[in-house]
Amino acid sequence: MTEKPVYILAHHVVTPLADGTAENLDAMAAGKTAVFPNRHQLFQDQGICGALFSPQQWDTLSGRFGSEWTAFEILMLHSLRKLLLSVPHIRMDDPSTLLVLASTKGNIGDLQEGSARAAEQAGLHRSVQKIAADLGYHSRPVLVSNACISGMTALLVAKRFLDAGRYKHAVVVGADCISPFIMAGFRSFQALSDEECKPFDCDRKGLNLGEGAGGMVLSTEPPSESNSGSTQPILLSGGASSNDANHISGPSRTGAEMAYAIRLAMKQAKTNPADIGFIAAHGTATPYNDEMESKAFTLAALDQVPAFSLKAVFGHTLGAAGLIESAIGLEAMERGWILPSRGYSNHGVSSSVRISVRLEKEQDLKHFIKTGSGFGGCNAALVFSKTN
To answer: How far, rounded to the nearest angstrom, does the alpha carbon of residue 139 sit from its chain's CA centroid?
Structure first.
């Protein structure tokens, strides 16, 4: 099979910080974060420090949809509609267009109602069918739910379909909402921080949860000047996944399995460690993840490449994280920016990896790597590259 170039035609991010990829990056550059203590979502009368949409933001988002849509579905559809507006030549009723949807939890928060109807509606397949019908999609979408690398896996699946010549275009969107059920699960692991998280820092206390949606449009056809805002086309040039089979919730202690995925992704992208401008890390600010990931960067000879985590800005957005953070990385590379890892000040992992501490402007950024990991031992790495 001869792999075809897979171009990024469009991307979109909606978070409590802003609506739009560029808008989110602008807010970050201004020093803003969506993570703060709040009581919008409660579990046993406890608040949460996270990146959650306010009731006013939900009112604005839901006002564009009918009452039959859940919060998760609203986020998914909002991002899909924004993406499709930016690529009007791509039609969802065209058999050459693939739709891939990703989520870790979907409507699982609705189960707290305890009704049979809520249980029936909580199934991800139901949401996918509703969304496909609303868009007039020609077939059944591909649904990906692969723990916290769901968004990255969705991009990998879409790329492989395009590589195989099955489709010309792929629309990929991931979304997740935070509920008391999800909060309870992470609290049971003692994984939540009561303040803004500090990835890779010695004083990190755990992660912040977040909600949002992110998406991309991929194509084997290069973008034209009329449908691309980028001055230089960007490719999803490589990607791979692995599983360390270590523990249902704890990652590998060596980082070898993530390093394996990174090396495979770089090989597919025909890049070397010296070519990589930055790493958009998973960086959850939990002890085992940060340690594993930093060891993986060292094993993959990327320890001197600046790495950053976005979790102190957007929180951990679960199945949407890989898409949101990849899109932000794309926007940063287009601007020639290496982003700071918010919350990091004192090195807190055993490997001497290079964690970015300030916004740097580099004119020669040509490639970056996005990494991710999740429960069940899953790992993923994606390489994004400018075409020349």
So the answer is: 25
Q: Does the CA dihedral 377-303-156-173 come out positive or negative?
A: positive
pLDDT at 38: 79
Asked whether the beta carbons of 241 and 156 are under 8 A apart, the reply is yes
Which residues pair with residue 216 across a beta bridge? 11, 172
Q: Are strands 367-374 and 278-280 parallel, antiparallel or unpaired?
A: parallel
Give the chain's radius of gyration (CA, Å): 19
Tell me the CA distances in angstroms from 197 to 175, 190, 206, one per residue in order. 21, 14, 6
* H or E element that contains 186: helix 180-188
Query: Helices 287-299 and 256-269, interaxial angle, to 10°?
Result: 50
What's this model's pTM, rounded to 2 decimal places?
A: 0.95
Order of all β-strands in the sheet with 307-308 = 142-144, 97-102, 169-176, 212-219, 7-14, 234-243, 378-386, 367-374, 278-280, 307-308
Distance CA 84, CA 319 (A): 21
Nearest to 204 by CA among 325, 297, 290: 290
Q: Report which residue type is found at 346.
A: N
Beta strands, E only, 94-221: 97-102, 142-144, 169-176, 209-210, 212-219
Tokens of 46: 């406890």
- How many residues appear in the chain? 388
The residue type found at 353 is: V
Q: How far apart are alpha carbons 266 and 349 in whole angstroms?
A: 24
Report CA-CA distances (Å) from 151 to 105, 215, 313, 325.
12, 9, 18, 10
Give the span between the Cα atoms of 165 and 153, in whole angstroms: 19
Containing H/E element for 156?
A: helix 150-163
- Phi (first) and psi of residue 3, to 5 degrees: -75, 140
* pLDDT above 70 (res 1): no
Helix (H, G, I), strand (E, B) or coil at 245: coil
Q: Is the pLDDT of residue 259 over 50?
A: yes
**Whole-number pLDDT of residue 226:** 46
Confidence bin at 43 (pLDDT 50/70/90): low
- For the chain, the straight-line distance linking the first and the last C-alpha, in angstroms and rounded, comes to 24
